[in-house]
Structures are given as C-alpha cells and as structure tokens.
Specification:
The protein is 25% helix and 20% strand. It is an alpha/beta fold. The longest helix has 13 residues. About 8% of the residues have low confidence.
Length: 283
C-alpha cells in the first residue's frame, strides 16, 4: 500500500506530518505516520500491518465525542450496488473497515442498513485486545442502532447474542410495544429525541455520556445525511472504489441538502490496487 498524501521526502526518511486543525475544543488526529513506502508491509506493495493501520487511524485525544464515518463509493458516486456496499469493496478496504471497528467505542448504524447488510454483533479481535485494554475499552465495540419506528427483527443475533449489549436509539414517543420487544430481546433502549424522531446531536451526546466517545458510523446514507445536516460529522473515511456502476444507486449521504455545503480538508490518501483510501476532517 502506498501513501500518496501527505507526501514525504523518501531520501530523508518519514516526515512527521502536521495534522490539520479539528473542530474547536478537539485535537485533530494526526495524518497517518504509517510505515515508509515499502517498509512494514506484507511483501512488495503489501498492506500495512494492523498495528500501522491502527496508529494511522487513531482517534484524537480529548473528552468530547468524535464522530467518524466509514463509507465506500464507486467512481460514479454510487454508495452501494444492488443494495449492498460489499460489491464495491476490496480486501484492503475490509482490513481498514476492521481496523476502524477495532478502534471505536461504538458503531452507530441506521435500521435500514441493519436490515439490508445483515448486521451481526461486533466481535473481539485479538489483534486489538491490548490496544483496547490500554484505552480502557471493552473487548468489542458496542453496536448502536438508530430507529424511529423500531421496525427491527429482535430475534437476530445482533440483539440476542452480542458480546456487549446492543443499544437502540429512538425517540421518546417510540411505540411502547416495540420498546418492550427490544428490551425483552436483550437490547438497551436509549431515548434521544422527542416524539418518534431521533435527534442526531442528542444521540451522539447520549452515547458520549456513557463513555462512548470514539464513535464510528457505517451508514446508511440516510443516517449519514442526518449527521451531516446536523453538523456533527467530524471525519470521513471514504474508500473510492475503481468501479463504475451506472444505475440509480444512492450516494453515501442522502436526505435534504444542507443550506451551505460543509467543507472538509484532506488528511491522508492511501492507495492499493487502484482503490483510494481517503480521510477528510471537518474544517
């Protein structure tokens, strides 16, 4: 895997990158230090080790929540193919996917994505066990499902057999019967909005109050669009897949447009097999 940005002087050894400024009150995560090109990889042009990836994608220090999104897009802007993101992915993309999960306190996901992608409980991975213990984290990230209607299959292992209890974020006016079904299955229901609506900023605040400040969202597009509209997305990790899909697949973020586009700045770009693995921080 090659680091395309930030550029380092290969004759002088790896440079220490200067991280762009993050939101007020937060220290932005440094751009990937990673191994120098060709060093610490698995053979010629190989992937970085999981430790190198974990260092490159480390969350910033601080007490406040940091919301990172991880998404994939085709060259022509599709966020999925036939309803799923997997056809746009690659082996390296999945390694980064696993690394981001291994660093997170909580994975925030929309109900539709749970239904379409067949979400299962996050698992503990030995490769991240020492790092998570040192950070005061549990063995695996918590899954937090955002749903207004609670139209979910609570018999799925995501709710009945997780390593750590799955959270369900909903509004205070959610159907009482469905709230009861969720709790009966073993999920913990948290209210983060009035009526049936879930307020994106309140949802993240509720999670942070529980010590879940390293936040990762994997979509879907509707949920990511809500986070963008609320102005609470701090970082976007976007894999640009060297594929063209045509059709009318949804983009990575959906919903009503924001009044003023949110500006992000590039923090890093890695490349492997034509895939670009980019990181952007909110300006």
């Amino acid at each position: 895997m090659r680091r395309l940005f930030p550029v380092t002087d290969m004759t002088a050894g790896p440079a220490v990158p200067v991280a762009p400024a993050g939101p007020a009150g937060s220290a932005a995560p440094a751009a990937p230090a990673g191994p120098a090109d060709g060093a610490g990889t698995e053979g010629e042009g190989g992937d970085w080790s999981l430790d190198a990836l974990a260092d490159a994608y480390a969350y910033p220090a601080g007490d406040g929540p940091w919301l990172r999104a991880n998404m994939v897009s085709s060259l022509d802007g599709a966020g999925q193919h036939e309803g799923r993101s997997q056809p746009l992915s690659s082996e390296t993309d999945m390694r980064i996917f696993g690394t981001l999960r291994g660093l997170a306190d909580v994975i925030v996901v929309g109900a539709e994505t749970v239904r379409l992608e067949g979400y299962r409980p996050a698992r503990a991975r030995e490769a991240f066990a020492e790092r998570r213990a040192a950070a005061g984290q549990g063995p695996a990230p918590v899954i937090a499902v955002v749903s207004a209607s609670l139209d979910l299959d609570f018999s799925l292992p995501l709710f009945t057999a997780p390593l750590v209890p799955t959270l369900v974020l909903t509004g205070s006016g959610a159907p009482a019967e469905r709230v009861g079904e969720a709790r009966k299955a073993g999920a913990e229901v948290l209210f983060a909005g009035d009526g049936t609506r879930v307020d994106p900023a309140r949802a993240l605040a509720v999670l942070a109050e529980r010590g879940l400040r390293r936040q990762l969202t994997e979509g879907g597009p509707r949920l990511l669009g809500q986070f963008v509209a609320a102005g609470v997305l701090d970082e976007l990790c976007l894999t640009i897949s060297p594929t063209m899909t045509a059709g009318d697949a949804q983009r990575i973020a959906g919903g009503p447009p924001v009044a003023v586009p949110t500006r992000f700045r590039v923090a890093s770009v890695l490349e492997r097999d034509g895939f670009l693995f980019t990181r952007y921080l909110r300006s």
